[in-house]
Amino acid sequence: MKKPLLALVAAASLCATVPAFAQNVAVVNGKPVPKARVDAFAAQIAKGGRQVTPEMEGQIKEEVISREVFMQEAQKRGLDGNDDYKQQMELARQAILIRSLFMDQEKKNPVTDAEIKAEYDRFAAQNGGKEYKARHILVPDEAQAKKLIADIKKGAKFEAVAKKESKDPGSGANGGDLDWGNPNSYVPEFSQAMVKLGKGQMTQEPVKTNFGYHIIRVDDIREAQLPKLDDVKAQIVQQLQQQKMAKFQQELRQSAKVE
pTM for the whole thing? Predict the structure, then answer.
C-alpha cells in the first residue's frame, strides 16, 4: 500500500533536518550552538598538552553552552559596542594573528639536523677537555688573602677557613666547594690560575678578579663528562628555534618603513 504524498514529504523534511541538528550541541534562546565550537575548545586544550578525556567532553560542552548564555546577555546589554570591548577585541586579534605568523614562520623554517649537530659540536668544543673539582676562598683584600694562605700552609683547614672567611655566599658555606666545572665556566684570571694547578695543589699567591682576591685549590681533575646529543637534542632545538625567531623578528623590524 502506498503512503500518502503528504506523509512522504513530511518524512523527507524530517530527514533533511537531522544533519543540521547533528551539527549543533544545543540551541540557546533559539540560537544554535555549533559543535565546531566544542571541537575548537577541545583542540585548544589539547594544544596545551592536556588529554581530552570522555569526562572532559561533557564539561567542555557545558562550558561552551554557558559562554553562549553569558554572551547573549552581554550583547543584550550592548556591551559588545563599547570602546573597551572593541579595544580588547583588537588586541586579541593582533595577538592571534601574530602568533599565527610566528607558527607559520617556524613551520616553514624548521631547525635542521645539520644545525643541531653543529650547535652540539660547538658546545662540545667549548666544554670538552678537562674538568676541575675546585674550591676557593674569596676575600676583598689582598693582604687578608695572603694571611689566609699562610694560615693554611701552617695547618689551618682550607674548608674551615672558607666557611669562616669567604665572601662567596654560594660556595663559602660548603667549604669553598665549586663542584666540577669546565675552565670556561670561570672568569679568565680564575681559570688561568686554576689550570696551572695539579691535583691537591693550592695557589701560592692571591688571584685577583673583578670579584676580589681568590685562594684556589684543585681537589681533582678528570676528562669532561659531556651529555650525549640525544640527551640534549630537545634543548638545542628549543634554543635554535628561539634564535631563529629572534632573527626573523629583528629582520622584519629593520626592513619596515617606520615614519
Answer: 0.60
